[in-house]
Amino acid sequence: MTFRSLLFVPGTRQDRFGKALDAGADAVCIDLEDAVPPAGKGEARASALAFLAQPRSAVVGLRINGVRTLEGLKDLVALAESQARPDFLMIPKVAAPEDLLTAGEVLPGLPLWPVVESAEGLRRAFEICAASGVAGALFGGADLSADLGSTMDWDALLLGRSTLVAACGRSSVASLDVPHLNIADPDDLTASTLQAKALGFTGRSCIHPAQVAAVNAAYTPSPAEIERARRVVEAFDAAGGAAALLDGKLIELPVIRAARRILDRA
């Protein structure tokens, strides 16, 4: 379950659910956590479950509240007792693999997306990403920066990003970078998304439909990248799986793996 882009939509804005599906993101995630004030949790929960009980042609997930909170437990119970079935369940504030157990037992078979957004969660990221049912993980940069007392600058969060990417890579699950919080700065959105891609993130989350196109473009291989990847694979195959040279550059297994990832994404 790999997405170039994932668009969050507040659970309080039922009028935006359909519009979010039309924004072009690979996945939409209805948010019952950060985007919903305490007084609106019940209403947002009911709206989300009603929407998720309807037939749909797009990939739609649900971000519940933390499973160590009363609202999170209410979300799980309501979802289990309803006819609604999201395509995946995003769980915030995951600090240990044990935080995923209840969701996995109450909703068996539902792909889980933990949000790693604390120092403790980062410390146990490899265990979290290896837990049963995990399909991918989201880097919660805003909460992590608050936990660490750091800024959200790229350099300040580089260790956190790198750690999560490595944890996801070790378990062969997808990884999404934190949303770009400044909607009015599309140039930095593109630049930082390309940095996240270079670091190894398989996609990025978005908080506004206007961000989707730039994120999709960054994670869509260009015709030149696709052609180069095809030539690499052809040269390797022609050499019978042995190391080969292409345009003066050595081609061996790590290069082949990267080329095949590009072709798979294309």
Automatic annotation (TrEMBL):
Keyword Lyase (UniProt): yes
UniProt: Mg(2+) binding residues: 117, 143
Biological source species: Caulobacter radicis
Species lineage: Bacteria, Pseudomonadati, Pseudomonadota, Alphaproteobacteria, Caulobacterales
Q: What is this protein called?
A: CoA ester lyase
Domain HpcH/HpaI aldolase/citrate lyase, first and last residues per copy:
4-209
Q: Which family, according to the similarity comment?
A: Belongs to the HpcH/HpaI aldolase family.
Key words of the record:
Lyase, Magnesium, Metal-binding
The molecular function terms of the Gene Ontology recorded here are: lyase activity; magnesium ion binding
Keyword field contains Metal-binding: yes
Any Pfam family the entry gives: HpcH_HpaI
- Residues recorded as binding substrate, renumbered to this chain, are 63, 117
Q: Give the record's GO biological process terms.
A: oxaloacetate metabolic process
UniProt cofactor(s): Mg(2+)
